[in-house]
Structure formats: C-alpha cells, structure tokens
Design brief:
Helix content: over 70%
Low-confidence stretches: none
Structural class: mainly alpha
Strand content: 5-15%
Distance between the termini: 16 Å
Largest sheet: 2 strands, antiparallel
Keywords: Membrane, Transmembrane, Transmembrane helix
Organism: Gimesia alba
Number of strands: 2
Protein name: DUF3566 domain-containing protein
Shape: elongated
Length: 90
C-alpha cells in the first residue's frame, strides 16, 4: 500500500528537531569547557562560542527546519509529497 506525506506539522516537528540538536550541541560544550579553562587569548573567546553551541544549534535548527517544513508543505500540496510503501506485519 502506497502512502504519501502531504503535510508536516511545522511546530511539533521543529520542537523534536530542537531537542535532538540541543543534545548534540552539548558535545560542543564539552569541547568548550577546557578551551575556556586552559586556553589563552583568542582560544578562550572561541571556547565561549563553543559553550553556547546548544543554544545556537537549537535556535537555528528550529528556524531553518520550520522554514523548510513550510516550503515542503507548499510544494507537497502542489506536486504531492514523499511516497513510500508500507506493509502490515503480524
């Protein structure tokens, strides 16, 4: 049976993506902590940017995904959405 994704919930999908991006952003925080503590000069400034990695990733991830989901919804209504086949397994 073929099914088609014709609409993506912009807010709900963006919230899920933000949660994932923030979790991955904490990797940048772990990199930034030693840079701030042990770095000299410009390295400390770069470390501060790394500390705010989860915030930047969450904010920009939300904005860009919301924009692309909106574009997808426009195009899917005119051209049709992604098509995939599903099968029921018992």
């Amino acid at each position: 049976m073929k099914q088609q994704i014709v609409c993506i919930s912009i807010l709900q999908s963006s919230k899920i993506l933000v949660a994932i991006y923030v979790l991955f952003g904490f990797i940048y925080t772990l990199i930034g902590i030693p840079m701030v503590l042990f770095g000299e000069g410009g390295m400390k400034i770069v470390g501060i940017f790394y500390l705010f990695g989860p915030v930047f990733m969450g904010l920009f991830g939300f904005l860009f995904f919301a924009f692309f989901a909106w574009i997808y919804n426009l195009l899917a209504s005119a051209l049709g959405g992604f098509e995939f086949e599903v099968k029921t397994i018992e």
